[in-house]
Task: structure prediction
Amino acid sequence: MTKVEAAEREPEAATLHQKIAGEIRGKILSGEWPVGYRLPIEVDLAREYRVSRMTINKVLTQLARAGLIERVKKGGTFVSQPHTQSAVLEIGDIRREVESLKLPYAFRLMKAERRRATSADLALLDVSAGAPLLEVVCVHTAGGRPFCLEQRLINLVTVPDAASVEFKDVSPSQWLLSQIPWTSAEHRIHAAAAAGDDAVALEIAEGTACLVIERRTWGGSGPVTHVRLTYPGDRHTLIATFTPAS
Result:
């Protein structure tokens, strides 16, 4: 197979990979495969979907990263028990966050670029190397001051319509919330010191303490987006609601 032929086959392979992941995810989220259910072994899944065992391994790795399954060495693969100790975080709209503060909202698009996934992107979003992505960067403002820096990767295999959106009248976060239903999400929250271009975009001094929320979301067809939201530490309060574990 030539390099050109291999490149032409990449989107097809990526689409098949996401289709299988979506079907398995659907069985888990619908309850057809309940907590503790033992999944068929890789060889059987590969035979059922008529793909290589390597493809099935990638699908299961993606689902394990999403917390839907647990892979036990020499023991099999099982549907995971939900992590009841984790706080439940809403995927909110930044515009509503600002308006709740009684401040005028606006956003400024800084970058919107279609490109292929690099090796660095694979750690952020469960896609194949070379998969088509849309990289979007924008600054949300509150009362004319930078409120949040949004740095986002959108998987164009799962969300092809995003490639034609100009994001002039609607921000990437608003558009995704209104257009793409999500089935699962992962949050990572940490503190960071503003540096380089991030500090410039937020109009703060380097070293200023910031709250960083990194989020990955999945839909029925596979991974949808990875976003890094950076807030100056004095401009955002994170509130999570949760209930006692049963």
